[in-house]
Amino acid sequence: MPNRLPNIHACVFDAYGTLFDVASAARSAQDALGEKWQTLAELWRSRQLQYTWLRSLTGQYMDFWQVTGDALDFALETLRVADPALRERLMNLYLTLEAYPEVRETLSKLSAAGMKLAILSNGAPAMLSAAAVHAGIAELFDAIISVDEVKFYKPHPWVYALASERLNIDAANICFLSSNGWDAYSAKAFGFRVLWCNRSGQAPERLPETPDAQIASLAELPQLVLP
User: Fold this and answer.
1) What is the mean pLDDT of residues 131-160?
2) Are 209 and 189 within 8 A, CB to CB?
3) For position 1, what pLDDT does the model report?
4) How many Å apart are CA 89 and CA 164, to the nearest integer?
5) What's the pTM?
6) Which residue of the set 14, 21, 148, 183 is catalytic?
7) Structural domains of the chain, count
8) Is 186 within 8 Å of 154 (Cβ atoms)?
């Protein structure tokens, strides 16, 4: 068990892959995708992230809904799936992604103890709101923050700065949670205290700054940050 992180006044969560299972959209369409569902989920997600980085680097920002659709189109064409109705279904499923099993209970414990909570995500505002409402966790957050405010995607420092500004809390007193290794390492480089929720047992990143600790599930979080 990692050591407790003292003086934490807020927990800020990445959304996709951390609170919400990004594979659940394709999984829910197995009846149409068959054995291709997992390959599509992985390709869709990898291109989605790559497009955010490329758009930030080239200064050609479009919101995450557009990026998600572009990535899905690439994945469908790669797998030779030509079905406009299925494409629309998958995009709608992305608005109702399943939350990981421990999410609601973990957030409820933190909120009940007076911890400030926020989402800081690449997601477009409407996407984040829809997913949080569907999961029944929207009311537990003090803020749901989208990169759309700065028109840059993670890991740009401007994105991480949004959390400190919105919550009015110093970065050193914020615990940032992400299951994406590149996000966790970049958030630590910005100045947050960071717990990497390494759900998949991924090898450490070769990036500057190392998260304060790794956890396998968000269920471990309350005992690490609450007094």
Assistant:
1) 98
2) yes
3) 75
4) 36
5) 0.97
6) 14
7) 2
8) yes
